[in-house]
Amino acid sequence: MAPSAISTSPPLETKGNKPTLPIISLAPLLDSNSPAVRPTATSLLSALETSGFLYLTDSPIQAELLSRVYALSARLFARPLAEKDALAWTTPRANRGYSKQGHEKVSLGLSKDEVTQDRGGAGEDQKESFEIGRDDEVEYPNQWPQDDDEFKDIMLDFFERCRQLHAVVMKGLAIALGLDSEFFAEYVKQGDNTLRLLHYPGVPAGAFDNGRVRAGLHSDYGSVTLLFQDSRGGLQVERQNGEFVDVTPIEGTIVLNAGDLLSRWSNGRIRSTRHRVVEPPLKMGGQDGYPPRYSVAYFCNPDFDKTIEALPGTWGGDKGPKRWEGINSGEYLVQRLSATY
């Protein structure tokens, strides 16, 4: 029997004191012969339309590989700052390498002035990160540690598995949107995605006073994001009424959320939901402060040479006009990154 396509939990609502998101099994989408392919695809689209965030289960990415990714990420961030700075992030167009705490200020702003105004007195993001792109771009090479071949091998393996999973998700969305199942294949062929390793260092009690956060309120820029998070917690999603709910870590799941370009592609039908990383639940902290948090985000994008405009069937007639003009995927991402770095 095929796993249930979606939980009966309402999106971004609460059960008692526990916030919930839709929970969808990937299993039917990984088996083209499954009778649950279409209902699962429909549930996937519905979740992205209503909440913009959901949990994925039954991932083909093995727990052992993810565990190794986490371990190698922690080993990288434990290096002396001088060694990490030697692998430094350079430009928005390259978008590869190490960013120390305070370098990036995620925000809703579209320019540096807007970001400065938006962040106000909230202070810098309390995180450091390491970006990895596809490894066949000669002009923008990845910044690999020269003394750690395992790091490169594991990260490239993980990158490719996530790229394949992105294609599965987009195929499901194509089916649900009434398009040819391979409609998005030409848009995600190159794999112009970013694997981001994130480390939120341990902080003392009181570090979140005065409105400080680990990562400011923002939306993601691309098509979808695959988020792998440890057990620490702190990720919050903004509801349409302005309230925030916790994206509680659930072992064995991937958090999937829609980004700006997918929202534009769907003419606003799919929600690019705003989110932030804040003070973890109280049980995670104590008099000595809060422990570090690690997460891995795989930012999926349409290939950078593609133009993104409203899909067939998402505009005209009762649906109204196109809400946005067409935009180049790569240029949009450079614009957003230029504002936050």
Low-pLDDT segments, ≥5 res: 1-17
How much beta, percentage-wise? 15-25%
Q: Report the strand count.
A: 16
Main sheet strand line-up: 3-4-12-9-14-7-6-5
User: pLDDT average, as an integer?
Assistant: 86
Q: What gyration radius follows from the Cα positions, in whole Å? A: 19 Å
The shape is globular
Structural class: alpha+beta
| Secondary-structure element string | EEEHHEHHEHEHEEEEEEHEEEEH
What share of the residues lie within helices? 25-40%
Measure the end-to-end span: 49 Å
| Biggest sheet character | 8 strands, mixed
SS field, number of helical segments: 8
Could you outline the blueprint of secondary structure elements for this entry?
Blueprint: E1 13-15, E2 18-20, E3 23-25, H1 27-30, H2 37-50, E4 53-57, H3 63-77, H4 81-85, E5 97-99, H5 112-119, E6 128-132, H6 149-176, E7 194-200, E8 215-218, E9 224-229, E10 235-238, E11 244-246, E12 254-258, H7 260-265, E13 275-277, E14 293-300, E15 307-308, E16 327-328, H8 329-340
Parallel strand pairs: 3-4
Antiparallel strand pairs: 1-2, 4-12, 5-6, 6-7, 7-14, 8-13, 9-12, 9-14, 10-11, 10-13, 15-16
Helix pairs in contact: 2-6, 3-6
